[in-house]
Amino acid sequence: MEKKRIVTGDRPTGRLHIGHYFGSLKNRVKMQESGEYDPYILVADVQALTDNFNNPEKVRKNVREVVMDYLSVGIDPEKTTIYIQSMIPEVAELTVFYSNLVTIARLERNPTVKTEIAQKRDLFGESVTYGFLGYPVSQAADITALEGKIVPVGEDQLPLIEQCREIVRKFNSIYGEVLVEPEAVLSKEKRIKGLDGNEKMGKSLGNAIYLSDSEEEVNKKVMSAVTDPNRIKKDDLGNPDVCMVAYYHKLFSSEEECKTVCEECRAGKRGCVACKKQLAKNINATLEPMRQKRKYYEERPELVDEILIKGTEKARQTAKETMKKVKKAMKLDYFE
Ligand code: TRP
Questions:
Q1: Are the C-beta atoms of 38 and 4 separated by less than 8 Å?
Q2: CATH of domain 213-295
Q3: Is the pLDDT of residue 189 over 80?
Q4: Contact 20 CB / ligand 1 (< 6 Å)
Q5: Fold observed for domain 4-193+301-329
């Protein structure tokens, strides 16, 4: 049976954290290992520039950081093709072609874009750039250039895939059945909250544990995690439902351990410090093999380059074939 092509990606604007791990990376590794798919992961540097155009150095630096994060969690370049978005010029070409098939009003209504614009007032002021408003079009080009069939996403990315599907249908209805319509597969994992209890874990919020954090950094961060505010002394009865330490225990500790921790907390028998120490130990046990893998690649940057060069070449080949079909359908194949 033919393997289903998956296309996913991340904006390289910072190293990846445990929220990314539980939200998407873990699932990507699982899908990779199932052998049922042909997965591609793109490092979306062009998309990252849409809201970081004034900071190219940040984007450049994080391309390799993000790739090392992928490798450290077990993305295997023999099974998953990793490539750099800006190195596929066909994606930029497709974006221009697709831009005729999308209205400005439709882009402005995209809930994901709308939320992001509201969050980026500092950058955009009263008027958003053409590039940022149009990034869903570029993302549609990412997916269709590779004939992606499946796009595993979190809730927040659903409107982007819906927009891509609309573009595909419009294209095919005008120029003929050329593009593959992708399907969003919603990740079952929910978004991981930050150490401070914020709904979102993120760099700008300063509440994230990074996959590449050292043991000391993890220990320090866990000590700062928000616990039940009503519990002041150890023998106060605690409420693990409002404690971030208990929340992370559920992700990193065994069921047995979670049960004991919560029971002892409710009974006022376990102090927060002991509870945090145990959590930090378990997080470190999960991250340690990742740190080892990361170190291996950090010491061999030429290997990372080689993976990216090979992956990009492979992705480019497919994109070129798509472009040929697209140009023929759009009557742009002048000298063929
Ligand atoms: N929008 C995604 C993000 O912000 C990154 C991305 C770019 C992507 N192109 C993609 C995801 C194609 C899936 C498919 O993280």
A1: yes
A2: 1.10.240.10
A3: no
A4: no
A5: Rossmann fold (3.40.50)
